[in-house]
């Protein structure tokens, strides 16, 4: 079944065209703050209901509840704080003076007015405490911890009104939860499995997707790559999407698979991030959620299967589909996992994004057991990885 949104109601805080025009016209009267890309994405996701039931950025009581229990104050599961940190010099000379009851305009780097924030509280962030509670560490080697520590130490909470969508990631339209729900209905899909990813697909990913499509309770697969803020060494978002397009077009039945981007900052919070990413997909209408090994992990910060176990601790009302690490076994001549293959590790073709990147960079041709040639063609184009 297509699940109810998290908390029962899909949040819609997108302003009408007439409100947007009026607020644009009155802009000179508005205190504005230039937001980081991550917060712009969050404001947009709040506005379109992807973070339902959140209607705005969290205040101290929500933050405390999420940090301590992994739940919102009402008891609903929620594991990642959604905050709006500000520095005293964030683009507005009077940002220092902003307080409860004020309305602030959130602008992007091109100075476009993206959203309004009705400030409810202004509070200090214990950034190290938040890092430890959310990511289990305050080690700045962790990318999200580094961002948190480098960001503002004050935050504003309050409801968000979205005035306009951001530029679509990778140049592809990014649907709202209402749009994907309508699309699933149109296709006659009842139970849709969401596939979280942030890299182009190799055959180990494809194997898990195929196992999912073989399950009798699954009507469709929604591939939903996270393409948010980019850092050096990442694939460009359009490349990730082109690579998935190549896989879907050449190897999947068009009636059973849909791929669309999701513009959010990737939280590498291991189990807590996996749960959060599942909640977001529930809002997009997915009644099942695929969890691979070490989902949303980074470095060696998380035990690889902690992301499976957290789905036993919280009931999201959707079906977690947990898969172990898969690989191509030369002895089996097939994709396999520890559950199906008795052969020693030497018989496995090891696949990693690093290995694929190195091979493509040196012009080495990877076997189809590792990478589909149509995907390799996309990844072999010049300039696919960001160099600055
Ligand atoms: Zn084997």
Describe the fold and architecture.
The strands form three sheets. Strands 1, 2, 3, 4, 5 and 6 form a six-stranded mixed β-sheet that branches. The protein has a five-stranded parallel β-sheet with strand order 9-8-7-10-11, with helices on both faces. It starts with 16 loop residues before the first helix and ends in a 9-residue tail after the last helix. With 388 residues, the chain is of the alpha/beta class. The radius of gyration is 21 Å and the shape is globular. It has twelve helices and 14 strands. The chain has two domains: 17-166, Sulfate adenylyltransferase (Roll), CATH 3.10.400.10; 170-379, HUPs (Rossmann fold), CATH 3.40.50.620. 31% of the residues lie in helices and 17% in strands. The protein binds zinc ion.
Give the overall average pLDDT. 94
Distance between the termini: 44 Å
Q: Please, what is the CATH homologous superfamily of the largest domain? A: HUPs
Rg from Cα: 21 Å
Number of domains: 2
Strand content: 15-25%
CATH hierarchy, class of the largest domain: Alpha Beta
Q: List how many beta strands DSSP finds.
A: 14
Question: Keyphrases for this structure?
Answer:
14 strands; 2 domains; 5-stranded parallel sheet; 6-stranded mixed sheet; globular; Rossmann fold; single chain; 388 residues; Sulfate adenylyltransferase; binds zinc ion; alpha/beta
Briefly, what is this?
The chain has 12 helices and 14 strands. By secondary structure, it is an alpha/beta fold.
Write the layout of secondary structure elements.
Blueprint: H1 17-25, E1 31-34, H2 37-48, E2 56-57, H3 60-69, E3 85-86, E4 103-107, E5 113-124, H4 127-135, H5 143-150, E6 154-162, H6 177-186, E7 192-197, H7 203-214, E8 220-225, H8 237-251, E9 257-259, H9 271-283, E10 288-291, H10 306-313, E11 319-322, E12 326-329, E13 334-337, E14 348-349, H11 353-361, H12 373-379
Helix pairs in contact: 4-5, 8-12, 9-10
Bound molecules: zinc ion.
